[in-house]
Amino acid sequence: MEALTALFESGFTVALSPDKLMWALLGCTLGTAIGVLPGVGPAVTVALLLPVAQSIDPTSSLIMFAGIYYGAMFGGSTTSILLNTPGESGSIISALEGNKMARAGRAGPALATAAIGSFIAGSIATLLLTLVAPFVADLAIRLGPADNFALMVFTFVAVSAVLGASPLRGLTSLFIGLAIGMTGIEQQSGQPRFTLGILQLADGIDVVVVVLGLFAVGETLYMAAYEGRLKSRVETVGSSLWMTARDWARSWKPWLRGTVIGFPLGTIPAGGTELPTFLSYSLERKLSRHPEEFGKGAIEGVAGPEAANNAAAAGTLVPLLTLGLPTSATAAIILAAFQQYNIQPGPLLFDTDPALVWGLIASLYVGNVMLLILNLPLVGLWARLLYIPRPYLYAGIVIFATMGAYALRQSWFDLLLLFLIGILGFLMRRYSFPVVPLVVGLIVGPIAETQFRRALAISEGDLTVFLTHPIAATILAIAAALVIVPRLLYWLSRRRSRAVRAA
Amino acid sequence: MNRHRDLGQVLIAAGVVAAGLVMLAQIPLIPAHAGYAGIGPRFFPSLIALGLCGLGILLLVEALTRGFPHLEPGPHETEPADWGAFAWVGAGLVAQMALIGWIGFTLAGTLLGACVGKALGGGDRMPRVAVASFLVSLAIYQGFGKLGVNLPALWTGWL
Fold first, then answer.
1. Using CA atoms, how far apart are residues B118 and B113, in angstroms rounded to an integer?
2. Nearest-angstrom CA–CA distance, A131 and A290
């Protein structure tokens, strides 16, 4: 309950002040717009705004960034439903049922169930965040460097090996991120590493360049190579957004179930908002009284996953704010924003800067209301963004990306890096390497190294410190199990089926 | 499973190994006064370089035997790659990095946008995309300039 007092006393005082309301509205509007636009996501947008954010105070810019993050979850569903191309990775699954509904002339109810479900899930999940975060922060404050390092290893394993089709490709992506993160002057010893004798590399490779290169330039190169000639079809919103009584009856349970699935999966470092939407979808298909409608436009298949992705987005803020651990690309770049202000998110933040933390959390409640208003009545307006022809859209995306990269230090060298990382992004997309592990490795790698060396400094160089500390040892054991157990099960089941075949 | 070997996969796996080897070769260049705990600035980079080599070798084995498993579906499976369009985007980026210091952000951005327009929309669309790119670049130069972002100009304050 202490949390609620803090939320109302310091949080809403900050979040409801006129200038903070304006930043939240700006963030929500931008977030919805980029959520709707295919090809730009929240990570790119926050990366672009990082140079601008230097001239704004930390609380305002973080409120804006959180608005972008939440807004993209709302806006992404519009694109999934009307265009059958997810505007954002957390909306892939809603494209399945939502677009079928739109083709059957039921775009309105699909958009409505997505927006209302997002609002309900977002609000409940923000409440859970309010209650859980201080509790986790209290626990986290007792963690030493060895435990923190173990947690980061766990994050690495979870984002790269658990999710995605191939743990090998996930780990490769992670290690590329770690390698990029190592480049430049090392913080503790001041020694340059992997600079290849190039002066510009001494400062390291900025996360902004990496995110813009991977997501904006990489995506454009992919689009040019493979999709330039494909035609897409935009469905119309139609006249009515009203959901019938039957739509409501079929939606409310999936909303709540989606929230219950999304929030916890968002909090554990298992890679953001995609997994919960897949789980929610398959659960709804199992529980539905109309399983025959799935694949043809079942409203449950939109309501559940859309609730789940918003709840998961709120969930990812728990490890970000309490442990300083990002579990999605957007959370990683928001962490970079904190670092830019020399603010270290983590358990201490709740004590050192309660106005910022609680103001940010309170703004999420406010933002959810704004987003519902922005998205439901104005959906027709957002849908118009889908009619921007691809050449214009991608020309704009790339111009913005070069602005973001160049603005870092006014150097053409960052534009070169942007291009090279864009080619890397293209190859990763083409050969199904996930990019989230790369971004997380890039941001968390250097922090992990610091924690590792601090732990060893305390133990006077004794490497067993990670095994003798009970918390660290437990976390590392779970991380190891995450890699080994699924492989073991697979191997056993293959052996069994081979034995059956032999018999 | 007699899928033909994908040369791209083999090259990517080899590239990962090569990146690991390049990193390994760089490690002796890192000045190595070991820290207080005996762990110096070489320790983590060595781990990562070895990790990349190992992962690259495993990828190489996959690529040479059954191919990468569980690839995500996408238009690259059905559409032939349009390397011309790819090159136009690349040319735009290279032109922009070469010229931005000379002709300023707005005009370099216009050129880049025109190249992307050519890549995605063909020659007919290019002039109109170029005009739009000019307007967007100008808006960025003016708008972000007021927000404290420093961009190069041909004519300071205007273009």
1. 9
2. 36
Q: How far apart are CA A392 and CA B92, in angstroms?
A: 14
Residue-wise pLDDT tens for chain B (159 aa)?
445 678 999 999 999 999 999 999 888 888 766 555 566 778 888 999 999 999 999 999 999 998 888 887 778 888 888 899 999 999 999 999 999 999 999 999 999 999 999 999 878 888 999 999 999 999 999 988 887 788 888 888 777
The tokens for B100 are 């931005």
What number of CA atoms fall less than 13 Å from residue A174's CA on the CB side? 29
A403–B144 C-beta distance less than 8 A? yes
Residue A51 zone, left/alpha/beta (φ > 0; ψ -120 to 50; rest): alpha
Which site among A180, A212, A392 would you substitute to test the B interface, given the most B Cβ atoms closer than 10 Å to its Cβ? A392
Nearest to A228 among B33, B120, B132 (CB): B120
Residue among A351, A352, A399 at smallest CA distance from A138: A351
Note whether A410 contacts B: Cβ–Cβ < 8 A: yes
Q: Is A490 within 8 Å of chain B by CB?
A: no
pLDDT reported for residue B84: 92
Distance from CA of B73 to the nearest CA of A (A): 9
Question: Is A463 near chain B, with CB under 8 Å?
Answer: no
- Average pLDDT over every residue of A225-239: 76
| Chains A & B: contacts with CB separation below 8 Å | 219
